[in-house]
User: What shape does this take?
Amino acid sequence: MIYKKGVEVRHILTIVLSGVVTIAFTACGGDDSSSGGTVDNTITHNGVEYKTVTSPYTGRVWLDRNLGAARVCDSYDDIACYGDYYQWGRDADGHEDSTSTTTATLASSITPADDMFTRSTLSPYDWVASGVDDSGALRAAEWSKTDGSSICPAGFRVPTHDELLAELFNSGSAEIDKDSTQKSGNSDDRRVNAFNSFLELPTSGDRKQDGAMENEDAIGALWSVTADTHKSGFVGWQQTSATYWGSYRAYGLNVRCIKE
Assistant: This one.
């Protein structure tokens, strides 16, 4: 960038990262200094446009909405911001749509050749067959990719359990599990606390292992990339409580991506 006295300099940089990121910068010259400027941090991935938000607690950068969401939430029960419901460790193959058809045939690999939500009616309620990535290591690696070939845009990945806790539960974070007597400014409704966080999270429910949608407006949840024995970590909240634990991998939950 060259700055000349009395001359306005404009520079537009377009980067293609599994979509398009356009950064526009305007510098108004005068005394060899710059002033003013605009930044459009739009990221397009799998046909959806996202922007980014920065955590006031950790400084980490996140997508501004759940994967697949049409917009940032206007309220915790804003249907347009719910986003998609991913079975844990599975790519964006169409199963994540809340209205996708279902199949009772467990997948023989972590990359099934269909777009159907896999129903699982027997413990451990996984969407892949027994012996296929029982530990979850292969799927954790898939969701940890940052090259744009997995569910998150290039430069982003699915967060770890600890990264979610650092933003939502740990001391000094949003602490969405605390009521108004425990944290100043918080609501007694944890759904409101989750929405009021910098991530503006919806209470979008989940898709059960049998393929049925449930708990919309009642429970919110986000997958992490962290695997546990036959389960995987997630954070969840409802009106009277918020916590973190493990869920069966056949469930469909929302995902919010973090920048590497």
